Amino acid sequence: MPVHEIPGLRSRTLSIRGERITTFPIPDFPAQWFLALDFDARVSADARPAGFSTDGDRARAERRLAQWARHPLYLREPDAFHRRLAADGLDMQSVLPLLGENAASLAARIGSLPDDLSQTASLLCREPDRTAMDRAERVIAAVATDPTSNAALRLVLPFLAHALQSLEQGLSPLLAKAPFQVEAASMLWARRLPSLLTPLFLRTLALEVNIARMKGALCGETPEARFSDFVNQLCQPERRHAFFCEYCVLARQVNRSLAHWVDFGIEVFSRLSEDWPEICRMFFPVKSPGALLAMEGSAGDGHRHGRSVLKLVFDGGEKLIYKPRSLSLDDHFQSLLVWFNDRLGDAPGLPPFRTLRVLDRGNWGWCEFIETRSCASQDEVQRFFLRQGGFLGLLYALQAIDFHSENLIACGEHPVLVDLEALFHPDDLDLSTGETHREPATKAWLTSVLRLGLLPERQDSSEDVAGFDISGLGDRSGQVMAEPVPVINRIGTDEMHVAYERLALETQNSIPVIDGVRVEAAHYLAQILTGFEKMYRLILRYREELLAGPMSAFAKDPIRFISVPTLAYDRILKTSFHPDYLRDAAERERIVDRVWRHPRPEAGLEQVFRAEKTDLLEGDIPFFWTRADSRDLRDSCGRVIPEILSESGYVLARQRLLQMGEADMERQVWAIRASFATIQLGHGEGSWPGHAAMADEMEPATDDLLGLARAVGDRVLQLAYKDNDYAGWLGVNLIRDREWRVMPVSFDLYNGLGGIALFLAHLGRLTGEPSYTGMARAAAHSIRRQFEARHGFEDPLPVGVYGGLSGPIYAFTHLAHLWNEPEWLDRAESYVPMLAKHVKADRGFDMLDGSSGCIMGLLTLYRAKPSTPILDMARVCGNHLLAHAQRPEAAPTGLFWHNRIPATAPLTGFSHGVAGISTALVSLGRTTGEARFLDAGLAALEYERSTFAADEGNWPDYRDFGENSEENSPDRPAAIRHFMTTWCHGAPGIGMSRVMLRGFLDDPVLDDEIDAAVRTTLRNGFGLNHSLCHGDLGNLDLLEAALTGSERVDVLAKLGTMVANSIRRDGWLTGIPLGIESPGLLTGIAGIGYGLLRLLDPECVPSVLMLEDPGRRMTGQSSRQSCMSWRKRTVQGEKVQ
Questions:
Q1: Is residue 1032 classed as helix, strand or coil in its secondary structure?
Q2: pLDDT of amino acid 17
Q3: Under 8 Å CB-to-CB from 323, ≥6 apart: which residues?
Q4: DSSP labels for 31-90?
Q5: CA-closest candidate to residue 218, choices 5, 495, 30
Q6: Are 550 and 175 in contact (CB under 8 A)?
Q7: Are 656 and 426 in contact (CB under 8 A)?
Q8: Do residues 463 and 451 make contact, with C-beta atoms less than 8 angstroms apart?
Q9: Helix (H, G, I), strand (E, B) or coil at 520
Q10: What is the pTM of this model?
Q11: How far is it, in rounded angstroms, from Cα 387 to Cα 1?
Q12: CA-to-CA separations, 405 to 386, 402, 415, 455, 708, in angstroms, rounded
């Protein structure tokens, strides 16, 4: 509701300087102020409300309870909400009166306001101290440089006047020792006020000024003038009191923030005065830095009652950093760098590290300010990245995290780490979920160099925008946040309003600059790897000495514990300042209560959640810390949460040092290389492997093919992370057909556990080697555990057969056949009911992630184990596709689908386009006998046929490639449109779809299309890489399926020989940027191994690219000899009957 006169507010009028103003006696606080009471205070009061005063109270309570229960955790596990209430001694019935209680009832029940809230109300009611008010107005005039901050500070004038008085009273005793005057000091500190207070008000001011504008209550000819009039009206004492009485939660927060501002200011100036002689000796030994001119720092990312890092600027140009925490960790790290510098003779080529001057004062400290400098030469750039590689090795050994771009400064040829609070970080408690159990590959990721934050990694992606990279070695230039955030447009006018925009990320100073151009770290990967390996081996050489000496100095150092990203906390905090949540603390606390993230928190985890909530309600980013050798966690107030960590960071770092060796270094080198592969987006320009056929290709023997496949299998086993009956892998995965991520593989078929299990299971069957079959079983068990843990999530998941929930159904159907174990069919069938809600949310529609792929996975299971529920779910998918089909505007026939991949026209192709969708609908129509699915499939086929470019013998790839998107629009001539010749996009995959359709349709055009696809694939489809998705082995599947007779034998023998020999010569060329080795099926080495098995015997190893059924073409013989005999005969040119 808009600001209005509060009933029961008794006022009196005074005349000050000829102006009549209204004030309020202290005892007459309106009842609305009690709505600012924290919910905990309402719950813990001696008496609780017995019922509802009005029907409106009941309705309000029921609405709030329903909103509270919509937390994703409670939607996923409803009993968790009951346990959450029980943690406060409540249940569904007793909480309702508390949620609906009105102000009058609350005031009568509680009786009196707590001290800080009483002070908040009284500052608005009492007679103003005109001297203090005049002083505050002068400060506002000096520091508020824009209309909105001016409005915010004028609105809080009574609070600000009181805070300034308190600040200056606290600073007065420091005058004798301080290098500053109190007038200058308080003014310097006041410059933090706009960034501290204005964000709290913006959305509420936007709401109120729009209400006033729509009511015609503003005067002025321009939007700016009307806003000025709005502020003048709002700053009248009676209106100000009415505003804050309505937004009482905001008033309390403003007063709290100013109190913290005062305490922090006095603390900083007191410490500066106390430490000044030692500061001058350490940092300014030659001459005094002069007068203090500025104190700069973020006011919006504060911890522990608004404390934050500050940069002090002096009139001589010198700068100094203040940190409101112990710097013993930083100090010991500088000593460690000196220790390593003294031993660099044993690491020739690794240049020495620059150290920082640090003054640790126990609970706070001072350190040298590092200026950003450009590099003067390429030699300096190369030395920068050699050192950065060295830091990767050292920080990895020290169990470090959080070295993103803001914590690293490029100072010429020196990378300087400027925030070391997260060394020796415990990694076994995830505050984002409360979980300590993790999958084997997840544990591996968390204990790898990837965790440091230095290596490129995309985060927080959305359907519309690729994830952004804030790593220490990433370049933030030109990046935007993936999710829109609320911003205020038309600030300072009566048209100011909230809009949701993706904000650009600020460019940081972590990357070297030469000749005014920021260099790309990827171009110096060789130097990074060299530096890493040299430091790694140096650590190994001096491991015992390191453990006995320099490491022990860190044991008692305080370290920050970081598990939940600051961005996640910040989103909750900003949301909580929406005006809807500022009238009643019960509303705001419902938002902040989102920190409760675990369905069954132990006592220690419950303490963590309560500490997070307390910090957020104070306006702080939650803060936790521990000592390097401790298992206890401490919150921002120092309260101990005992032994919540299973092991201390110090012990974990020592264990890591003892476990380091050549095998581990190889894994970490892979992780570094893989992280740089993720810089590239999708299949666009970049560093891709390739190969050329040699003139003297020799046909491989059958045993050679099997040997090549076994080599892949052995490598997959070597890359596995095993934990009892479960297994996992780290891989480089393609997300949304657009961005690459280094991550633990999921349960999917594309690059996850499903595809790896299929390869190993087939290899185990063909070789009789139990290690392959055993690992396949471990992968299958992990699929089951992951799938059953994720399916209940409220957020929709992909349902496609390659990248989604139907992948395990397809994989288990095959494993049941391979192992002759029908229980895997039962498990697959049990997953079918879980698909419904995710199909409903599907907007991918395609084979990879959408309902088309889900149809194919379900039909595979249905043919192996016919049942009505399976076919009914396939119908649900088909109906979903029909409901979202679209027709071309200019043609009466044809169907297509728009999915979430940016494109200039509806996509063609098998993986994401109409080829896959039409194949699924025709298959469903033929299986069910329902003409509507068949007709839709045929209409989709008609659309794709209309896009065929005869000159290219191919179908265009309409994905939006940014700068080239106009060139790829459908009305452009074929010569300048984009084409791919792979399974995922282009002729090979479309040709495979036509082969599949030929089994259902009597359509001679299909033969023509298959012929065109084969010709184009033979012409353009080889020499790319060896992958299934967009490489040679995938394209061979089309030729194996489409060709017949001696032509088939000859072509497969020739091209298979070329691929096999390239593997021997070039190694495995994966379908990943830089050719990075990854274990997955469609783009990784498991797929290369699977393709080799298909070359060995396509009759025994079904095509996953064409989603063949298990054993469709097998004779039932299971001996290795019978499975290999076909290949032997075809290599010799014999006719196969």
A1: helix
A2: 33
A3: 309, 364, 365, 366, 367
A4: GGGGGGS-HHHHHHSSS---S-SSHHHHHHHHHHHHHHTTSHHHHH-THHHHHHHHHTT-
A5: 495
A6: no
A7: no
A8: no
A9: coil
A10: 0.88
A11: 59
A12: 18, 9, 11, 10, 43
Kindly report the three-state secondary structure assignment for every residue of 385-426.
Answer: HHHHHHHHHHHHHCCCCCCEHHHEEEECCEEEECCCCCCCCC
Q: Which two tokens stand for residue 424?
A: 């020796």
The full 3-state SS of 636-696, as one line of letters, equals CCCCEECCCCCCCHHHHHHHHHHHCCHHHHHHHHHHHHHHHHCCCECCCCCCCCCCCCCCC
Please state the φ and ψ torsions of residue 741, each to the nearest 5 degrees.
Answer: -135, 140
Instruction: Quickly count: other Cβ atoms within 10 Å of residue 346's Cβ.
Output: 11
Give burial (CB, 10 Å; 0-12/13-18/19+) of 222: exposed
* Contact call for residues 303 and 623 (beta carbons, < 8 A): yes
The pLDDT, as a whole number, for residue 16 is 31
**Do 536 and 448 touch, CB atoms closer than 8 A?**
no
CB 564 within 8 A of CB 557: no
Residue 701: what pLDDT?
56
C-alpha distance from residue 25 to each of 3, 33, 107, 161, 181 (Å): 21, 15, 18, 19, 37
User: Are 761 and 820 within 8 A, CB to CB?
Assistant: no
For residue 987, give the nearest of 967, 1015, 965, 964 by alpha carbon: 1015
- The secondary structure of 102-119 as a DSSP string is -HHHHHHHH-S--HHHHH
Query: Sheet holding 365-368: strands in order across?
Result: 292-296, 310-314, 319-323, 365-368, 358-360
| CA–CA distance, 621 with 614 (Å, rounded to integer) | 10
Quick one: CA torsion of 671, 672, 678, 680, rounded to 10 degrees?
A: -150
Amino acid present at 886 = Q
Confidence (pLDDT) at 290: 86
For residues 383 and 353, what is the distance between their CA atoms, to the nearest angstrom? 10
- Phi-psi label, residue 907: left if phi above 0, alpha if psi -120 to 50, beta otherwise: beta
Q: Which residues of 17-34 are buried (b: 16+ CB within 10 A; e: fewer)?
A: eeeeeebbeeeebbbbbb
Please give the pLDDT value at position 30: 87
- What is the SS3 assignment for 465-508? CCCECCECCCCCCCCECCCCEEEEECCCCCCCEEEEECCECCCC
Write out the two tokens for 763: 């290899």
Q: Which residues pair with 367 in a beta bridge?
A: 321, 358
Look at residue 317 and give its three-state secondary structure. Answer: coil
pLDDT score recorded for residue 300: 52
For residues 335 and 319, what is the distance between their CA atoms, to the nearest angstrom? 23
Cβ contact 299:196 at 8 Å: yes
**What is the rounded CA–CA span in Å between residue 1070 and residue 1028?**
9
What gap in Å lies between CA 850 and CA 804, rounded to an integer? 8
* CB-CB contact of 809 with 828 (8 Å): yes
Alpha-helix runs per DSSP H in 523-593: 525-541, 543-548, 566-575, 585-592
Which stretches of the chain score pLDDT less than 70? Answer: 1-28, 175-177, 179-183, 299-300, 428-438, 461-467, 476-477, 680-688, 693-703, 737, 791-794, 890-892, 961-977, 1112-1137
**Locate tokens 């004028």: which residue?**
154
Would you call 599 exposed, middle or buried from its count of C-beta atoms within 10 A (0-12, 13-18, 19+)?
Answer: middle
Torsion of the alpha carbons at 864, 865, 868 and 869, rounded to the nearest 10 = -100
Residue 693: the pLDDT is 60
Q: Which residue, chain included where needed, has tokens 């919150």?
A: 635
Cα-to-chain-centroid distance, residue 768: 42
Provide the Cα torsion 1072, 1075, 1078, 1083; round to 10°.
40
Q: Can you tell me whether residue 321 is helix, strand or coil?
A: strand
